[in-house]
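ARCHIVE CARD
Drawer: 12
Card no.: 0347
Subject: one protein chain, sequence and derived structure
Cross-reference: see card 0346
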Amino acid sequence: MRGERLKQPEMTLGQKLWQIHWLYVLLISVTAGIGFLMLYSAANGSLDPWASRQMVRFGIGFVALIAVSL
């Protein structure tokens, strides 16, 4: 009996998603969006060469952020 751990019920994926601080995710996304607009403006209204690559990188990083937080 000594040293035994009580099993706690596993959280479902939906419960884990509710535990994420969505305000921080929103702030990161807004900051990235402003950065995308700055890159778009610097390229004279074109997504190439900088903004499109940065958006792809952000998307990959965003997926990684959510995966790690779960």
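Annotation on reverse: The mean pLDDT is 90. Helices lie at 13-19, 22-42, 51-69.
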